[in-house]
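Tip: read the tokens left to right.
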């Protein structure tokens, strides 16, 4: 494995994963797509209150 292969197969995915992880940590996990499954009961109640959807 040469330097370029190392860069593309290991370093770049690692940087992407680290960036995503820090993004989650520093936004307090409040990103909509990521926190939606965790806040499902709450989100369902909010949706029912705002849109009149069945709970």
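Filled-in amino acids:
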């Amino acid at each position: 494995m040469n330097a370029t292969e190392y860069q593309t197969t290991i370093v770049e995915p690692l940087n992407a994963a680290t960036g995503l992880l820090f993004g989650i940590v520093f936004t307090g996990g409040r990103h909509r797509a990521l926190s939606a499954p965790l806040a499902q009961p709450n989100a369902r109640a909010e949706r029912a209150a705002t849109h009149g959807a069945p709970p």
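Residues 32 and 39 are 10 Å apart (CA to CA). The helical segments are 3-26, 32-35, 40-51.
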